[in-house]
Amino acid sequence: xxRVVLITGASRGLGASIAKLFLDNNDIVxxxxxxxxxxxxxxxxxxxxxxIVKGDVSxxxxxxEMVDKIRLEQGHLDVIVNNAAIADDSLVEDKTKESFSKxxxxxxxxxxxxxxxxxxxxxxxxxxxIASTNGIDTNYPYSLDYDASKAGLIxxxxxxxxxxxxxxxxxxxxxxxxxxxxxxxxxxxxIDKECDKILLKRFAEPEEIAKVVFFIASEAASxxxxxxxxxxxxxx
Length: 236
Ligand code: NAP
Fold this sequence. Notes:
Layout: E1 4-7, H1 13-24, E2 28-33, H2 37-46, E3 50-54, H3 60-74, E4 79-82, H4 97-119, E5 125-130, H5 144-164, E6 168-175, H6 188-196, H7 206-217, E7 228-231
Parallel strand pairs: 1-2, 1-4, 2-3, 4-5, 5-6, 6-7
Helix pairs in contact: 1-7, 3-4, 4-5
The protein binds NADP nicotinamide-adenine-dinucleotide phosphate.
């Protein structure tokens, strides 16, 4: 039977790569987007089983409506990938309560809401939270809000794995640097310095992370649960 998959923030970057892998596997994929409707539509045009769904994951009503649409159209959900996130890097002194809250609401509380409401239509299956090595290592105080959200997401993963066992596996993937829009403002000097810390001497392509997500959602990963899988090219 085709799996029904919800991927948040799947209009661009890693989320779009993950969506295409599931679609290539003939799964039914709900491509959540917030602002990038055109990008989401481009994926839909290429895949008959892609369904686009607008929603801000930080808004409870949007998440409820998104899950309700899936319930009405498919009756159930098999896989959730909590991928939507924002970064708002700045000097620590320039950060505000509002900017910090927005990062937490999108990256952490959004994942909680999608897991909470999505679970209501999951009898079994897999939830994969896209964390980051920033949620484990601490190197960049200008992203302390983002790092806190990802550390929180790892904790959420462990707790939901307990709560949803034994029928639903919950894991996190923690990528290192990826070539996506999230890093488009980085200058070459910074990128070169970061690449020096990576054994593979380069950022990941989104497809390289997507393949790990696809594996964790598969039967081949049936005994991986409550885990955080680093995919960072050997970041030191
Ligand atoms: P990206 O290129 O900036 O794309 C972010 C995606 O999240 C977009 O599709 C965006 O949708 C969506 N999004 C943002 N806020 C949203 C909201 N409130 N509701 C719904 N969707 C929302 O980022 P990326 O690099 O692909 O990142 C994907 C995941 O990998 C994130 O969890 C990120 O933290 C993680 N990650 C990235 C890196 C990296 O180096 N890039 C490293 C480690 C982990 P719209 O454009 O439609 O608004």
